Structure formats: C-alpha cells, structure tokens
Amino acid sequence: MDYETVIGLEVHAQLLTRSKMFCACSAEYQNAPPNTHVCPVCLGMPGVLPVINQRAVEYTVMTGLALNCSVNLHSKFDRKNYPYPDLMKGYQISQYDQPLCVGGWLQIEVDGHEKRAGITRVHLEEDTAKLTHRLTQVETYSLVDVNRSGVPLMEIVGEPDLRSPEEARQYLIKLRRILQYIGVSTGNMEEGSFRCDANISLRPRGSQELGAKVEVKNMNSFRAVFRALEFEEQRQRQLLDAGQRIPQETRGWVEELGETVSQRSKEFAHDYRYFPEPDLTPMECAP
Description:
Elements: E1 3-14, H1 54-66, E2 70-71, E3 74-75, E4 78-81, E5 91-94, E6 101-110, E7 113-126, E8 130-135, E9 140-145, E10 152-158, H2 165-181, E11 194-204, E12 214-219, H3 222-241, E13 249-254, E14 259-265, E15 275-276, E16 283-284
Parallel strand pairs: 12-13
Antiparallel strand pairs: 1-10, 1-11, 2-6, 3-16, 4-5, 4-15, 6-7, 7-10, 8-9, 11-12, 13-14
Helix pairs in contact: 2-3
C-alpha cells in the first residue's frame, strides 16, 4: 500500500533572559558547577511564590509575531502535573488553554518548492532540572542538577503539515534562524537550548484520517531529527504492511544504534490534570 507520512514538530527553545522564569536566579547556567544557580523557588520548596519574568513574556510575543501568530490579549499560566524526578515541584508551570500566541505559519522551501506549515501555538513555561545517569559495577543511580530548573522555556507547537523528514529538517533550520535573528534564543541544540520532539504517523495516501501518532524524543541535531524520522517512517510502514497496529507511544532516538526504542505509552492532556496556577494572576497584553 502507498502511505503518506504526517509529521508535526514540538520545539522547545530556552529564552535569552538574564534570570529564570519565576525567580531571580541566573539563567546562564551552562558552565556553572551543579546546583549553584538555585533558590527556594526553583528548588520547589514549600511556601514560596513565583514572579513572572516580563522579558520572557516579551520574547514569546516577539516570536509569535515573527511566526505570523495572533497574540492573545488574555492569557494565563497553568499547572501541568506529572511525577518525574527532574520536576522539582511535582508539577510544571506552563500554559494550557490560554497560551500567549496562536494560529501562525512558517514558510519553508524543499527541493525548489515553497510550503506553508501551520503553527498551532507558542506558549511559555519553565524548564526542568537535568538528570545525569550513572552506571557502575555495583550500582545504577541518577544525579540531579537543578541549575536548569526554572529557566524560561518557549514551546512552539506546529500543525501536522510536514510530509517528509527533509521538510521537518528545513522547518527546524528556518525556525532556529528566525529565533536567532530576533535575538530570543541561542538555538544551540548541542547545549539543549533548542530541542525538538517529533510526532509522526502514516496513513493511506488520499486518506484524511490521521494514523496512530508516535512521539520521538532525544534528538540533539538536525541530522538526528532527519535520521530518526526516516527510521520511524520505515518502521511504521513495515508494521502496517504486516497487518499490525501502531501503538500510540513515546519513543527515544538512540544515536549509537541508529533506531528508536519504546519509552512509555503516550500521555493525553487529561493525564496531566491541568488547572490554573493559583499563585499567578492572568496576564493582559495591551493591543
């Protein structure tokens, strides 16, 4: 059977602010010793109160305008609940139903043909801490570095408009170029300041119904994104040709193996139990 590939990208970009998203700790943590850019707020201690970083909001609005989005005059922050060990509070302050920017697009060119890829939303949240995994002859353990926790993180959610790994690569190259040009992010994938999760599915060509979506993570270069999507495209095609079902799940790209591996079943929005952040008032953007 002839299949059509459907790809949508979720890009996280750290913003070039001097301080973190909700506290005064320095956001310039890349070369700092572990756990030195921390305070009770980004450590998630009881009783502390977050304060919104105005520059991070401005940078997110700038990005939305650069991506042809509409800016919501009314937006708010929400708590996204999930129990990961790199999430200091047990929830992430993010945006759910009232993001800062919605409904944009990005123009790309592939093989001499121009294409417009839709942007669903651009919203603002805080980054998580960083886990470093250690394996010795006697034990396995993980170390937590909280320096990254609370760094302003902007998420750019694309529509499922991309149809090939090459289109996905060109989309990322163009998007990073825009963020660097307007000065809101370094766009450095190797340092983790520009990160991409890719949602990919296959469907019979001509069909309008989307297939089961697989999210691919752990890609730290444009080449890795291209290779991971190529592998996943082929893996799903082989399963469908064999009459098997594609489970909706999250898979990780393993560079050394050149393949994706299953990590967990895919979460849905209701799994995160979103609710409005009670410690932050809604934001009003002047028209």
